[in-house]
Write a structure and sequence with these properties.
Elements: H1 3-9, E1 14-18, E2 24-26, H2 27-43, E3 51-55, H3 60-70, E4 75-78, H4 85-94, E5 97-103, H5 107-110, H6 113-116, E6 122-126, E7 134-135, H7 136-141, E8 155-161, E9 167-171, H8 187-191, E10 199-202, H9 209-220, E11 224-227, H10 233-243, E12 247-250, H11 252-259, H12 263-266, E13 276-279, H13 286-296, E14 300-305, E15 312-315, H14 317-322, E16 329-332, E17 334-338, E18 351-356, E19 363-364, H15 368-373, E20 382-391, E21 397-401, E22 407-409, E23 412-414, H16 416-423, E24 429-439, E25 443-452, H17 460-473, E26 482-485, H18 499-512
Parallel strand pairs: 1-11, 3-4, 3-5, 4-8, 5-6, 6-7, 10-11, 10-12, 12-13, 13-14, 25-26
Antiparallel strand pairs: 1-2, 8-9, 9-19, 14-15, 15-16, 17-18, 18-20, 20-21, 22-23, 24-25
Helix pairs in contact: 1-2, 2-3, 11-13
Amino acid sequence: MSIGNHAARAPDRAAVIDGGSGEIVTYRELDERSNRLAQYLHAAGLRRGDTVALFMENTPRFLEVVWATRRSGLYLTAVNRYLTAEEAAYIIDDCDAKVLISSFDRADVVSALPGRLPYCLDFLMIGGTIAGWTSYEDTVAGFPAQALDEQWLGELMLYSSGTTGRPKGVRKPLQEVKYDADGMLSDLLRGLGFAGTTVYLSPAPMYHAAPLVFCISVQCAGGTVLMMPRFDPEEVLALIERYRVTHSQFVPTMLVRMLKLPEEVRHRYDLSSHRISIHAAAPCPVEVKRSMIDWWGPIIHEYYGGTEGNGLTWIDPASWLAHPGSVGKAVIGAVHICDEDGAVLPAGETGLVYFERDTIPFAYYKDPERTRASQHPLHPTWSTLGDLGYQDAEGYLYLTDRKAFMIISGGVNIYPREIEDTLVAHEAVRDVAVFGLPDPDMGEQVKAVVELMDGFEPSDTLARDLVGFARTHLAHYKVPKSLDFIDALPRLPTGKLYKHALRAEYLARMAETRPDRV
């Protein structure tokens, strides 16, 4: 159902609760507010298939914008709130956004955006205004809280970084259905008990595909989204107790941080309402998941998929305990493991993971080459996210590696090429390699190794300067945690950087210095 249906049937039910402030937005309020914004967008000239960009922290207003675009037949591009102005401008320009909505909280970053985005029609700011921006609240207040005469179902257009280091938009065709036919709630989620009584805890940034899609799904079911402004391990437990949370979703780093809470804190809160917890976005160490099941019980489910939506695997707690480390069986698409030539491999052999669908359900916006590169060489309706894995004899999928050199830190994908391209622009840098190393807290950390130009000498001061240089151009989570110098980076005669050997050398050093070594 749509939120309009729920507003009519249960107008005072909480649609979203701010876990920080306690603010409650009812279904009546969410429906009316999203209608006002939809009316404004239509009056501004946006029509079915146009795009709105949203660059904002986690607040209840976020979902208000989401539903306005969904009931207007528009694409919504949610932009990573931690990006620099330069990074955000690229995405907002690339998605052809006609309206950009942000918040006063992001004012220091977005102040320069109007000058960078000449084709954007309007810039609306929530919670205050700065030069070049207009008040969101004042603007939408002048429009009626009634539905548009014609409401087509909109779609998300989120960004997934590519091999070039530049993010690429995942643009799916609009469905030929009206807004009231919103079918976001799948049979899978119904089977997990998503309903009007659901209280869903969402601790992750809303610009990510997973929390955004799940929050929309919860509201399609008429449930309540409990949105955390930011993740805090003990606050998660407190919110589960306070609001009688029934469902939740995390990334493995969050599970690790909750497990590291003192024993008395972990068992201080009543978690008896908590029936389903889901995790995804990054590999979860077997022992971490086993410890979570020991603590919370067999309520932890896992899935594997991507922003592209080309396929999905799922595994429930009982199946995982019987197949530890697996990400499950396919529930959307069929899984094939193939070698570099596209030949299907037998059970137990590692290769590239493909999902088979009747059609390719996505295209990378303005990038037909990358779209084609994601497709199987012999079967055009098979597509891959670039991950390696194998299936066992029962069809359970195990991931053994990830996209070439991609770093996953705290559940966030980081692409080394973008960081390398930034650092190599510094006058002192001749060559640079960036890769991920194991991190007990974040899963992986960003490591940079730099070859210097003649005339520059390695020093701690220069290392700090280079990290500071990266910080001025990149979001904080992409900035190298540590930086080393090397006489010459290992490159093959073809010019290709032999990064595997370099990373292996660092892994060997880490193994030699492990505290458990005798």
